Amino acid sequence: MTTMGRREFLLSVAGLAAAQVVGARVAGAQGSANTMDGPMSPDAYHPVSLPPKAGATAQLTDAQRDDLEHRLKCQCGTCMLDVYTCRTTDFTCPVSPSMHVDVMGLVGGGYDVQEILAAFRSVYGERVLMAPVKEGFNWVGYAAPFAALGTGGVVAYSLIKHWSHPARAAQIAEDTVHATPDELKRLQDAMRDDE
User: Fold this and answer.
1) 3-state secondary structure at position 132
2) What is the dihedral of CA 78, 84, 90, 92, to 10 degrees?
3) Which residues contact 179 (CB under 8 A, 6 or more apart)?
4) Is the dihedral of CA 140, 143, 144, 150 positive or negative?
5) Domain coordinates of the chain in residue numbers?
6) Buried-most residue among 48, 130, 150, 165 (CB within 10 A)?
7) Max CA separation in the chain (angstroms)
8) What do you get for the CA distance between the two ends of the chain, in Å?
C-alpha cells in the first residue's frame, strides 16, 4: 500500500476539480440550443405580420409596448414566461426576440394593443395569451373561484348557525352522550356552580 503525501493529494483534488469544470463547459456548449429545462420546439415560432395601415404611425409608447409583451406568452415550449421577461432574461431563447420583432413591426404599422393581440391569437391561438380573454366560456374561469368562495361562506354560516341553535345542541348532546336525564341535570347543575 502506497501512501499519498499532502502535495500529491492536493494536486489530485485540483485535477478532479479542473476536469469537472471542463466537463461542465463542454456540456453547456453542446446544450446551448436548450433553454431553461429542455430543448426548444423547432416549430415554436410563427411569424405574425399585417400590412401597415395607410399613413401608419406608432400608436404605442415603449412602455405600452412592453406592457403588451407582458400579456403575450413566449412560445418556445420550455418556459412559462411572457415575451418581455423571456427576451430580457433568457438570452439563449430565439423565440421571444423574434416575437418582439413581430410586435415592433405591428406597432410600427399603426396597430393598437387589441389589434396586435388579435393578430397573435390568429396565428398561435389563445395559448399565446398569459391570461384567457374574458369572453364566452372563459368567464367561468374568472367567476368560479368567487362563486365557490361565496357558496362555501354560505354553507359554513348555515352549518354554524344550525349547530349553535340551543335545541340542536341539546339534540346532539342526547345523541352523543348516553346519560339519563337525571345525570344530565346533575351535569348542568355542576356546570352552573362552576360559573
Assistant:
1) coil
2) 80
3) 187
4) negative
5) 33-133, 138-194
6) 48
7) 96
8) 84
Lookup result for grid cell 409596448: 65
Q: List the grid coordinates of 160.
A: 354554524
The answer, as to whether pTM is greater than 0.70, is no
d(CA 59, CA 114): 12
Q: Is 79 exposed, middle or buried (0-12, 13-18, 19+ CB in 10 A)?
A: buried
Ordered per-residue pLDDT tens for the chain, 195 residues: 566 677 776 667 666 666 665 555 544 444 444 444 455 565 788 899 899 888 888 889 999 999 999 999 999 888 889 999 998 997 888 899 999 999 999 999 999 999 999 999 999 988 898 877 766 666 676 677 888 899 999 999 888 887 776 666 667 666 776 778 888 888 888 888 776
The 3-state secondary structure of 84-101, one letter per residue: HHHHHHCCCCCHHHHHHH
The Cα–Cα gap between 98 and 125 comes to 17
**How buried is residue 60: exposed, middle or buried, by Cβ count under 10 Å (0-12/13-18/19+)?**
buried
